[in-house]
């Protein structure tokens, strides 16, 4: 019997089944057009790998601070390979703009009509928060940027970025999705006051291009709703919370909310790459015998050759002489007597003081594992600070010399040491270190007396970092 002769009720049933099936299909594939019956070829367009031309750094400065902070910008800004802009509250008469060696200056628009009610705070926080919007607007109208920028990075004029590392770390994330990436304060107290979920602005933070465009559109409305919060970063954070976005924590951003000697923090950096440092005008010079700015410049001699390796900590042991050596690449080598276990060596030595000078119940607390650092130099390790680098194309030798210290009684293996030379290969950031990183191993070349040579290398599969594994 031909099918068209089916009784009407059967046809109804079939229609019902077909329509239910298509409703079911529409519900499970809500965006799929129904029309194409030819098999469709899905082309997956992979975006080109992220490079510095896809990232825009926006720096919050002011007519008051710009001249003194310019040297920090020079450290990391390279006109040939960095997109960056600096925002000022008003023009400075004797400053040339544009200066080919510094980011172009943009004068922020007037924000006096926005309310600010935080007691004793600075209303410039509104202008600085609004840089997020102004940076997005700038990209939209700038021919060379508008089709290229995939990430917005924000910082202060005293934020020192390790630009290459920022690009490498951001390349882990999809800029088409909404990302808010940054670091917290080191100070528990500061996080408690502002938020444990906020990226602190001085350490710098990143916003994906897709999120930046939306945030730019809605920010002004948030600025009117949060006149009572303290800083620019709190304003940006509040608006992101309202958009339903949460912080993605990257431990390489450093707000540096501490005072005094940053040594303990620098010498025990996490394995993830150093992304930024801040507050160099407030902390002590990071190298003995140099000024604050000279000392940062000195660190950058190492940064510029092998950025992913800067501050990376490797530990080696000489069991015959019972010595433990901790190399924080490009910064310091610490020589300890005896067997120091790795879990102790990666704790931050408390060489610094608290951000808040007034003592509160929380002011001594910090956001990482710590251990005491003895003020008696004979009870602390012998220190060999970074002196210089001999760069080669794929590797380098870095040199460290002993910091002049008291005559402490030391075992023979340590007493005569004057120089330490560290050999390393450049870190291939595509394959090494980025998610998940593994600490490198190191080897002390025997024999040594006044000069010790150390080679850094990848650990063997089963190799343990210990004196007697
Ligand atoms: C930028 O590129 C130009 C031309 O290649 C070069 O002369 C200059 O030294 C570069 N500047 C920096 C800071 O690398
Ligand atoms: C250290 O000892 C040497 C010789 O033992 C002595 O000449 C020197 O003055 C001492 N230095 C200090 C700082 O005590
Ligand atoms: C080690 O160096 C010291 C001087 O710092 C020297 O007196 C001693 O002879 C040297 N030892 C060897 C084995 O070279």
TrEMBL record:
It holds the Pfam family DUF604. PANTHER family: FRINGE-RELATED. This is Uncharacterized protein.
């Amino acid at each position: 019997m031909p099918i068209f002769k089916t009784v009407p009720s059967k046809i109804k049933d079939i229609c019902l089944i077909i329509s239910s099936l298509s409703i079911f299909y529409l519900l499970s594939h809500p965006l799929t057009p129904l029309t194409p019956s030819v098999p469709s070829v899905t082309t997956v367009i992979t975006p080109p790998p992220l490079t510095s031309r896809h990232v825009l750094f926006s720096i919050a400065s002011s007519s008051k601070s710009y001249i003194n902070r310019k040297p920090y910008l020079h450290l990391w800004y390279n006109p040939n390979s960095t997109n960056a802009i600096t925002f000022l509250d008003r023009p400075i008469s004797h400053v040339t703009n544009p200066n080919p060696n510094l980011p172009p200056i943009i004068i922020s628009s007037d924000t006096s009509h926005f309310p600010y009610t935080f007691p004793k705070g600075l209303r410039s926080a509104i202008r600085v928060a609004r840089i997020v919007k102004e940076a997005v607007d700038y990209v939209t109208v700038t021919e060379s940027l508008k089709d290229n920028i995939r990430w917005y990075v924000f910082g202060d004029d005293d934020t020192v970025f390790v630009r290459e590392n920022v690009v490498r770390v951001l390349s882990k994330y999809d800029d088409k999705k909404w990302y808010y990436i940054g670091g917290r304060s080191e100070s528990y107290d500061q996080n408690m006051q502002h938020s444990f979920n906020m990226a602190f602005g001085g350490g710098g933070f990143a916003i994906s291009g897709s999120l930046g465009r939306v945030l730019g559109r809605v920010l002004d409305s948030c600025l009117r709703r949060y006149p009572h919060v303290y800083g620019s970063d709190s304003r940006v954070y509040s608006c992101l919370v309202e958009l339903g976005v949460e912080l993605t924590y990257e431990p390489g951003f450093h707000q540096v909310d501490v005072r005094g000697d940053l040594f303990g923090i620098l010498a025990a950096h996490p394995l993830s790459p150093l992304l930024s440092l801040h507050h160099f005008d407030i902390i002590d010079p990071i190298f003995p015998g140099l000024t604050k700015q000279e000392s940062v410049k000195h660190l950058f001699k190492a940064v510029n050759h092998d950025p992913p390796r800067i501050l990376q900590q490797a530990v080696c042991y000489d069991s015959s002489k019972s010595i433990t050596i901790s190399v924080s690449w490009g910064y310091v080598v610490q020589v300890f007597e005896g067997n120091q276990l790795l879990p102790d060596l990666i704790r931050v030595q408390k060489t610094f003081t608290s951000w808040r000078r007034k003592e509160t119940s929380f002011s001594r607390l910090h956001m990482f594992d710590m251990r005491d650092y003895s003020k008696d130099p004979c009870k602390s390790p012998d220190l060999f600070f970074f002196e210089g680098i001999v760069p080669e194309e794929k590797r380098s030798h870095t040199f460290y010399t002993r910091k002049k210290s008291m005559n402490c009684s030391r075992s023979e293996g340590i007493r005569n040491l004057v120089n330490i030379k560290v050999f390393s290969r450049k870190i291939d950031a595509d394959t090494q270190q980025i998610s998940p990183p593994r600490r490198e191993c190191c080897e002390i070349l025997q024999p040594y007396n006044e000069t010790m040579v150390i080679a850094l290398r990848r650990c063997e599969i089963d190799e343990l970092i210990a004196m007697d594994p």
